[in-house]
Write a structure and sequence with these properties.
Shape: globular
Order of helices and strands: EEHHEEEEE
Distance between the termini: 33 Å
Number of helices: 2
Strand content: 35-45%
Structural class: alpha+beta
Helix content: 10-25%
Radius of gyration: 13 Å
Length: about 110
Amino acid sequence: MRTFTCPYLVTDVELSSERESHIAGAHPDLLPEHLAEIGLTLTDPDEVRRSLRIGTARLFCKWFEHVRQGKYVVVVVVSEAGIAERHWVVTAYITRRLANGEVEWQRD
């Protein structure tokens, strides 16, 4: 399992081996080549949106000029509240347009 620092959530975010394999299989344009960009997206996002599909998820979005000649990397993080609060990556992908979702935070 990998962990990435996420200042926005003020904690680390987990990327399990199972989720990493899922992303690599479903989005081979992202992994393994752009693993560092997943970390950068969580560390320094351009925008954070609330997911419309998963009530406890946020979409961390960051534009990269060098990813496929200019694309966003989106990392979807599920947050579980409770005694053992947990934040984990459910999926990540590359896109040219951001999905709908309520903008929770945006870089000025």
